[in-house]
Amino acid sequence: MCPNCGSFDVAPRAVSGRGRVVTFTVNRQAWTPELTQPYVVAIVELEEQADLRLLSNIVGCDPGEVAIDMPVSVTFSQIEDIWIPMFERSARV
Amino acid sequence: MFDRLFEKDVAVTGVGQSEVGRPSLKSAMRLSLDASVEAIADAGLRREDIDGIACWPGDNNNGNSFSPVGPNALLTALGLKVNWYGGGYEGPGPLAGVINGAMAIAAGLCRHVLVFRTITESSARARDKGVSALTAKTVGRDSSYFWQWYTPYNVISAVSFMAMYAQRHFHDYGTRPEQLAQIALTCRRNAELNPKALYRSPMTMDDYFASKMISTPLRLFDCDVHCDASTALILSRVDAARDCRQAPIRLEAVGAALHQPWSWDQISLTENAAFDVGRMMWSRTDLKPKDVGSAQLYDGFSILTMFWLEGLGLCPRGESGPFVEGGTRIARDGLLPLNTNGGQLSGGRTHGLGYVHEACLQLWGRAGERQIAPHSISVAAAGGGPLGGSLLLVRN
Q1: Would the ipTM clear 0.95, i.e. be above it?
Q2: Interchain proximity B265–A43, CB inside 8 Å
Q3: pLDDT at B132
Q4: Which of A88, B68, B111, B224 is the one with CA 20 to 30 A from B3?
């Protein structure tokens, strides 16, 4: 159900995979023995709709380059039979 | 808007707290009993007077250190004969036990409710650092609801969210690290005078900036310190409170609202639940933010204290940075003394009820060396992300 209007006329829909960084953090604490390198946790808003956002990682760039409002696009990380959506810096401005 | 406000029927009549250990050698149940027995005696009551018991979050996952003792176990150990008891995670944050207990009194179920909160994360972490991960705290409760969306991204600690909230606040309002640092520095200065506080050696701004970066922009000293402790208080119906030992501290107003999704990433990133809670609380009283004499505001992470300052209207939206800058306004002799026992950042992560305990000690003038100027109105608030609740407390 749409929590805004109450409609049940809802269904999955393909999106562009493009968005922007709403906020982020560079994690430096090794919570588990494998997490030795800084990594970026971010909330990304997709371009299709305001506040359509998800939590993800920003990958493929120096964590120091990540900034709020940075354009990003999706990239998938395959773990066994699951493809996890992550985001990388987009060339689009 | 409502013709009856339930909290007007309820007062705090006694408080108690176990030792605050890092770790404590006492069992979780012994800590809970120490706090409870002290609170009951503090109110001038006997065990047989207690006819209700409340706790947030209740018996968490069968003894998990986040809340190892729930109402079922404690009422049994204390030999209480209760007419109402309740616990559970779903509710407006760490003060939910107070709000639920007050509702039970106002609804006519009971007269004197023991509210408690026990936590043993220090000793548990000495065995396994993973036990305090949010994933461990919420197993079997809401992991199926939201946590599955976070763990694939190595979001293991709540600090990931708190850091993202802080980053957005810095971006939107120009808040600076040296402003945020004042929360940690103020708590430490207050902890120096609290014999039960865990960290009491002076902290300088240089010390703050030398502390380890955990997750930008939050440093180690922006994160609270795990402890083993139990805190308890007695809520009494106002007419029954007259029989108690000391001046009742009335629940003038409560805030418990959530007008947003229950989510750590879909909620307002620079408000969390604090503004919803604040608007509700002030709608239930004629008092105003300027009337508040002391503030005990959740500092599980320093940025959350900033959100509470703004959400409760103690400073304008977005201006918590300038408000706390230099630390003068929030010092013990300032305009709005803040977290006068050292908060959770230096005092210990008693998690929620510690703020109410300290507010009451200050209102009663029983805070010892750290006692601030006499005042009759205090505000306590706890929670972060979607969790949030507040209490406006008035000493008669």
Answers
A1: yes
A2: yes
A3: 67
A4: B111
**Which stretches of chain A score pLDDT less than 50?**
none
Residues of B in contact with A31 (CB under 8 A): 133, 154, 156-157
DSSP line for B228-286: EEEEEEEEEEHHHHTTSSS--EEEEEEE----S-S-SSSS-TTTTTHHHHHHHHHTT-S
Q: Is A24 helix (H, G, I), strand (E, B) or coil?
A: strand
Closest A-chain CA to B154: A41
What confidence score (pLDDT) does residue B30 get?
98
Structural tokens at position B387 = 């969790």
- What is the reported pLDDT for A91? 77
What pTM did the predictor assign? 0.97
Chain A residues in contact with B152 (beta carbon < 8 A): 79, 84
Mean pLDDT of chain B: 95
Which one is the CATH code of A18-89: 2.40.50, 2.160.20, 3.30.70, 3.30.720? 2.40.50
Question: Best of A21, A29, A49 to disrupt the B interface by mutation (most B CBs within 10 Å)?
Answer: A29
HSE-CB at B362 with a 13 A cutoff on CA atoms is 31
Rounded to the nearest 5°, which phi and psi values hold at A42? -145, 160
User: Residues B165-214: pLDDT tens digits?
Assistant: 999 999 999 999 999 999 999 999 999 999 999 999 999 999 999 999 99
Q: Can you tell me the distance from the alpha carbon of B293 to that of B265, in angstroms, rounded to the nearest whole number?
A: 34
- Across the interface, which of B164, B212, B266 has its CB nearest the CB of A25? B164
Helix (H) or strand (E) holding B363: helix B353-364
The predicted structure's pLDDT at residue B127: 84
Give the model's pLDDT for residue A60: 96
Determine, for residues B212 and A28 on separate chains, whether the beta-carbon distance falls below 8 Å.
yes
Domain segments of chain A as ranges:
18-89
**Alpha-carbon separation of residue B253 from B139, B226, B239 (angstroms):** 33, 30, 18
In the predicted model, residues of chain B with pLDDT beneath 70 are 61-62, 132, 134-145
Tally: H helices and E strands in chain B: 13, 11
Superfamily in which the B6-395 domain is placed by CATH: Thiolase/Chalcone synthase (3.40.47.10)
Cross-chain Cβ contact B215/A35 below 8 Å: no
Cα–Cα distance for residue pair B22/B224, rounded to 1 Å: 13
